[in-house]
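Entry:
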Amino acid sequence: MGSRSLSSRWIIDEDTTSFQAPVLASWCGAKQRLDLLALRGDSGIGLALYPVDSAKLAAVYTVTEPGGPIQIRPGAGVAIRWFGKTAVEGFWGRQGTVTVTQDKRGRVGVAIDAMLVSSVLGGPALALTGSASGIPIAVDTTCAGAETPSVPGPAVPGPTRPDSAPREID
């Protein structure tokens, strides 16, 4: 596991992409949610973790699809996006797990093993794996209020097929 950097890879059909980016964690007390965000350029992976107990973040979180007023605890939302050849590619978690560890200083580590589906109806699915460790948690003072259920937006033109050779995202 890379310290404070999320190392990940995803597979669509037989195409593999590697991605590594600094990761930030923030605690939203109003929603009792831990958010992790790894960004590099136009690409990113986001995790929303819903613990059973805010004092004990270490657990195995079940990945569920977004939407709806109720969030399963411990549960995780996972999303990924990157700029493809002609459009932004977006995927959200359908199933899998995010395993969270926490050290004595309160820093967290994550291990992701999830299946994500395209935000485009009928688009491809991808398998995502990744890990990071030693991530300090900041307090998010801007999050507040009730969680609003997400509703998928209108369909956009389908994703382009990635190159068949493994590649690194710049």
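Residues 148-168 have pLDDT under 50 and may be disordered.
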